[in-house]
Amino acid sequence: MKFSTREDIEAPIAFVFDRASDFDALERRARQYGAEITRNGDGPAQVGMTWDAAFEFRGRNRQMQVKLTQFNPPETYVFETEMNGLTAVSDVTLVSLSPSRTRLAVGIDLRAHTLTARLLLQSMKLAKTKLTKRFKARVRDYAEDIEEAYRVQS
After folding, report:
1. Are 12 and 153 in contact (CB under 8 A)?
2. Helix, strand, or coil (residue 59)
3. CA 62, CA 74: separation in Å to the nearest integer?
4. Residue range 51-57: mean pLDDT, rounded
5. What one-character DSSP code corresponds to residue 52?
6. Long-range contacts at 44-48 (CB < 8 A, ≥ 24 apart)
7. 17 and 74 in contact (C-beta within 8 Å)?
8. Is the pLDDT of residue 58 over 80?
9. Beta strands at 50-57 and 76-83: parallel, antiparallel or unpaired
């Protein structure tokens, strides 16, 4: 099952990529939603970097491992996430539309490897319209945050 969306941001691609790949800020944001995140390794972002995360979803504690599989500044990065028989490949791609405008495209592809994960995906498919609206709203809010940060900085 796939989710994807794109948003245009009034900011240069370098600024947007710096914000979108600020993994410390993304970790803080996940913690605000109740997730426990542990980064394995220090230093700048690089392919092979991993995170362990724990959070509650649908009344159960979930564990997941996230690995940065591609990192090509200032255009794209890709994560692969493993969680209880479910694999999610998330990609963030930036395209410079002009010197001061950037298109942010975000996609998530979910694949089940176990019966339990297939049942979870099936229930998600039934609510796909609602989940897609939420996904697009979150990405839109994130894009607006980046745009606002650029305005404040300028």
Report:
1. no
2. coil
3. 32
4. 92
5. E
6. 45/21, 45/71, 45/77, 46/71, 47/71
7. yes
8. no
9. unpaired
Instruction: Report the distance separating Cα 70 and Cα 107, nearest Å.
Output: 14
CA distance 66 to 81: 4
Distance CA 8, CA 66 (A): 27
- Measure the CA–CA gap between 8 and 94, rounded to whole angstroms: 10
- Identity at 96, one-letter amino acid code: S
pLDDT digits (tens, 9 = 90+) for 121-146: 999 999 999 999 999 999 999 999 99
- The three-state secondary structure class of 11 is coil
Token code pair at residue 132: 């897609």
How many whole angstroms separate alpha carbon 56 and alpha carbon 89?
20
Highest mean pLDDT: which range of 22-26, 54-58, 74-78: 74-78
> How far is the C-alpha of 139 from the C-alpha of 87, rounded, in Å?
21
Q: Across the strands, what pairs with 62?
A: 55
Rg of the chain taking only CA atoms, in angstroms? 16
- CA dist., res. 84 & res. 116, Å (int): 8
2-45 pLDDT, tens digit per residue, is 999 999 999 999 999 999 999 999 999 899 989 999 999 888 88
